[in-house]
Amino acid sequence: MTLFEPIKVGTCQLQHRVVHAPLTRLRNTEDNIPTDLVAEYYSQRATEGGLLIAEATAVSSKTGGYPRIPGVFTKEQQEGWSKVIQGVHGKGGYIFSQLWHGGRAGSSLFLENNLAPFAPSPIAIRGDNQFTNTRYEVPREATQDDIKDFIQQYITAAKNAIDAGFDGVEIHAANGYLIHQFISSSSNKRTDIYGGSIKNRARFVLELTEAVVNAIGAERTAIRFSPWGGSHLDVDDDTPYETYSHILKKLDPKLAYVHFVEPRDDFLRIPDLENSLDPFRKVWKDNPFITAGGYTTRPETISAVSQETGNLVAIGRAFTSNPDLVYRLKNDLPLSKHQRDYFYTTDAIGYTDYQPYDKNANP
Ligand SMILES: Cc1cc2nc3c(=O)[nH]c(=O)nc-3n(C[C@H](O)[C@H](O)[C@H](O)COP(=O)(O)O)c2cc1C
């Protein structure tokens, strides 16, 4: 079964293709430092030759982030991550850091002098920020100097992540955050070289990825996209196939992997059953491709998609409630249901207290 066949991803020799999707859980300190509890969570889910992608991590103090997300811009945060990484490596697993900048999804509450967050264009997300219970703000339009500064923040964060011991970094270009805001036609109305045509909207992500590759190497750099998946943050693209095919063709083909969120993802929105990732799989055929989204609610398709495509499959919600998910999938055992109420709470309950499979407790 392809799902349990080895595959080389960057510098990591994986033994199977079940990947822990990046999952924000807000269990870090107010200073964005991963705690021992966070280390316990990842270590519980680490497996021999298995890949975990860690939760979205602020690249700098200037992201306007969310409360209690982790960062990778201070020594203390690096030390917190090193403990997490040791726990994962101790079990023979691998872990990538997901580098994140929220752009207009961030909040002035977390920014110096309460300045508004940055975005490609001064267009607010419609609706409320669920993490701050405030309206999304009209963002500041980034200047070209600001764009240079964003790229510098990613370079520093990538180097910090590798210094802390991560096996690689995944650039978060999905789900409606800063990079996705630049790519998408609905959120990027710029008239300079970073807006307008596909080529221009793709310029930021391509320059940024190239800079990270130059800093830490292609085999330690990866990227996540969601061509259809930013609608909950009011991000949509008029021509997802053309836009993302252009980006894929321009990316360094030696990246550790590309990671795509399925249009069929039912997390936060109505699944799109008409579109498919297949055209992107055809473009990115020589190096690892991770597919994610919706497999939690259709676990029977995990093995099938891996068999058909050779893809790695990232699982989100089911990994929260099944620390031994890989074992359960391998042995065709039932899964424990995830509990949304504990996604964004602060303690061990609904985080590290899920139990491994027990045939008496799970008949
Ligand atoms: C609690 C929670 C937190 C998430 N945090 C992130 C994140 O930090 N970065 C990211 O790219 N996606 C994030 N996602 C999306 C997941 O990575 C994944 O794409 C989504 O849950 C769909 O997969 P699933 O159907 O297996 O749950 C999050 C999802 C959930 C449920």
UniProtKB/TrEMBL annotation:
<feature type="domain" description="NADH:flavin oxidoreductase/NADH oxidase N-terminal">
    <location>
        <begin position="3"/>
        <end position="335"/>
    </location>
</feature>
<keyword id="KW-0560">Oxidoreductase</keyword>
<dbReference type="GO" id="GO:0005829">
    <property type="term" value="C:cytosol"/>
</dbReference>
<dbReference type="GO" id="GO:0010181">
    <property type="term" value="F:FMN binding"/>
</dbReference>
<dbReference type="GO" id="GO:0016628">
    <property type="term" value="F:oxidoreductase activity, acting on the CH-CH group of donors, NAD or NADP as acceptor"/>
</dbReference>
<comment type="similarity">
    <text>Belongs to the NADH:flavin oxidoreductase/NADH oxidase family.</text>
</comment>
<dbReference type="InterPro" id="IPR045247">
    <property type="entry name" value="Oye-like"/>
</dbReference>
<protein>
    <recommendedName>
        <fullName>NADH:flavin oxidoreductase/NADH oxidase N-terminal domain-containing protein</fullName>
    </recommendedName>
</protein>
<dbReference type="Pfam" id="PF00724">
    <property type="entry name" value="Oxidored_FMN"/>
</dbReference>
<dbReference type="InterPro" id="IPR013785">
    <property type="entry name" value="Aldolase_TIM"/>
</dbReference>
<dbReference type="InterPro" id="IPR001155">
    <property type="entry name" value="OxRdtase_FMN_N"/>
</dbReference>
